[in-house]
Amino acid sequence: MPPDAKPAPSDPPSAPPQDALLARLRERLGARHVLTEATDLAPHLAEARGLYRGRALAVLRPADTAEVAFAVRACAEARVPVVAQGGNTGLVGGGVPQGGIVLSLARLSRIRAVDPVGATLTVEAGAVLADVQAAAEAAGMLFPLSLAAEGSCRIGGNLATNAGGTAVLAYGNARDLVLGLEVVLADGRVWNGLKGLRKNNAGYDLKHLFVGSEGTLGIITAAVLKLYPRPASRAVGFVGLPSPRAALALLERLRRAAGPDLTAFEVMPRFGLEIVLRHVPGAQRPLASGHDTYALVEFASPRPGADMAAELEAALAASLEAGLAEDATIGASEARNAALWRLRESLPEAQSREGGSIKHDVSVPLSRLPEFLERATAACLAEMPGLRPCAFGHFGDGNIHFNLSQPPSMDRAAFLAAWARFNRIVHDIVHDLDGSIAAEHGVGLIKRDELQHYGDPVGLDLMRRLKAALDPADILNPGKVVALSDDPPPALP
Fold it and tell me: In this protein, which residues make up the domain named FAD-binding PCMH-type (predicted)?
């Protein structure tokens, strides 16, 4: 090189791949919808229970399906994982990011169409469940999915987790309430399955791959939902019973008496009612004395002129006369009906104020529910005397939240450290009774290894094959439900 020659300028150092991805996303979505500040990320890194705390590169807030598709395609090309979030009200760690991008669907909140004749409602995934219910009501119809978080959870998450709630007995899970879906796939393509058809046998029913998949196979961006006639008459009763076996007998009697008019049958134990009365302001004892088991019963009918209060009163009177029930009351107004429902719906909040709680969301065949409760209660008390079982929930559809409150004198952290021990005790009994270890909350992280332990090997292989076929690069919510790698899920705190 001549003495006066200058070296050729070197190429400027390339930006880190993540910076290039964020720049690309900001250009399309707008900088204010690509959040990277710690204070903006924090609400998206943990669920309500706080069992896991995750990490994320950024939170994206796309405005429509096209922006969701662009974001997913960009992340796939950069090999950056994506975790979709709705209201972030999950309970099993399914929406907690373990790096990568959180894709918030909160801005996809439009009600796209209402069809009262076809009894359908087309909504975007970010619509809050309570707003979906209100849109149905404005059309003179009913969207029956109802759960405690309905003021903040979003319909896309409800479908992605196949949410249950209090109306399953009459209307089914979220899976039973959807006719069609729009889904962004792992490579950014959009599957348009938004058909409001009651009958469609043109090949595989693809929507059911995505309902309940917890965002691991595709991201739901819109749905066609089923609507029903609004009830013209409703009655709510609260019943004191001597045992869960008596509750099952009462359920059978009421089902024969009311048929489809029996729309809810929820059960809670004496301990559950007592802690609600202790911790929930305004809660009032519904019956004069205490009982081993309580049932909240609802009759409802869309028939004009139906008198559900009279029908429920007659059915409960016959049950009292037969010795199935010990005492009962019926709400004399909608305000009283709401107060009775509040006793049941406030139970999770009340239990949280009693210290640590180890939770099991399980289901067993309806006829075996009393056996499960007896066996699981005895086994858990034998393992830890002083433990306070609190088994409650959707008795009418076989789903029980078999929760365990810590002994009053025990350290909370020491109690929660026994979670895995009690999982094995409770889930072994569930498995022996041909039940499910994940009834309505999903698998997420907290039950991923339990699914591997109890799941049918052929079924697990099919799940992994589906995941590998639809998301071969493991971009969508990796490590949840079924894992394509052997990495263990994060430990519980």
Answer: 52-230
